[in-house]
Amino acid sequence: xxxxxxxxxxxxxxxxxxxxxxxxxxxxxxxxxxxxxxxxxxxxxxxxxxxxxxxxxxxxxxxxxxxxxxxxxxxxxxxxxxxxxxxxxxxxxxxxxxxxxxxxxxxxxxxxxxxxxxxxxxxxxxxxxxxxxxxxxxxxxxxxxxxxxxxxxxxxxxxxxxxxxxxxxxxxxxxxxxxxxxxxxxxxxxxxxxxxxxxxxxxxxxxxxxxxxxxxxxxxxxxxxxxxxxxxxxxxxxxxxxxxxxxxxxxxxxxxxxxxxxxxxxxxxxxxxxxxxxxxxxxxxxxxxxxxxxxxxxxxxxxxxxxxxxxxxxxxxxxxxxxxxxxxxxxxxxxxxxxxxxxxxxxxxxxxxxxxxxxxxxxxxxxxxxxxxxxxxxxxxxxxxxxxxxxxxxxxxxxxxxxxxxxxxxxxxxxxxxxxxxxxxxxxxxxxxxxxxxxxxxxxxxxxxxxxxxxxxx
Length: 458
Known about the structure:
By secondary structure, this protein is of the alpha/beta class. The strands form 7 sheets. The protein has a 5-stranded parallel β-sheet with strand order 3-2-1-7-18, with helices on one face. Strands 9-16-10-11-12 form a 5-stranded parallel β-sheet. The chain starts with a strand and ends in an 8-residue tail after the last helix. The relative contact order is 0.11.
């Protein structure tokens, strides 16, 4: 009996996880993964660590390499770009960029994990030298070179989301004069509410970063290389510009074949199937089902792609999958110098965008009992909870401190995933040891505060 031919497009988190799942669950499969790039597979979320000299080597900043899969039924090919799907023949057309040759590859099952590409602002001067993007190994090498160049004095970062904050911090730690620009009104404003972004904005300013929000960029100025960023309020001297202004789905090659929405996201059903038979889509190029929002929304996270890959492969050979994909919460974390936060589920911005009504509560306290002074490891901590105002079901939350309390962010994620209420979190049975926390743990206290209970002050 011939083996089932599985073709995977894209070598990032989703493609990697699909191979792992296929090898774990089936013996009669032949797996071919095509990657258009020439490096398998750079982990862009590790770029800041590389820029700050905190990794072993740039070639180690990857999800996996072809050498990780020596099995004879696994074929991992870089510089191979899939350009079209021929659904009737059940083949994909692939161009080998090393040789220039094009061929058709048959499949029995096709998994699309084509991901996203970073956006470049459509302004004059975008093609000037030293205007960079913050994604992929090639851009990482170029940015690293500029960070080490003493002739580079001024760096401007476009975009105050996660990637922009990472670029700004790495640039500042390299001794550069850094300006952070965004059209939104707060850095990280799509991830956190104002109570927390105010803390982080003060931290960025204290570290010497010039934060300019509500900035409308009209052009990049320069002769051959960029020399300034022009906004509606003036020009900012810039030897290097790093664009971190969002991403777009890498799906132009699918138009007219796979159903896409008006923004280019791949449409999938509740089983992550596309409109084509035996063709599935996972990862950043799709809209993920959000458990707290109860609808499909963009959630560009490695954790999403891996969980979707796990589900698809589990049900790959079922004529009708036994259960639909349950969905995800969407959780992430970031350090902003010595401030650390983790967030999960909805916040005010994402809830409004999804059409979900939420109530919220912001709580600040100390991590450990009051008799422990701050200079002995008892920092201030902040918690924000979002919940259904009627049922008290938790829909999201965030934690923030100079102490690493990001593990509590995972507790919030689990609470949202399991549909817990404020009342459940208020009395959840967490440990107590004054070297770590309070008699009521941090999330107990935050939930009790949200319920309006008498404050526990010890």
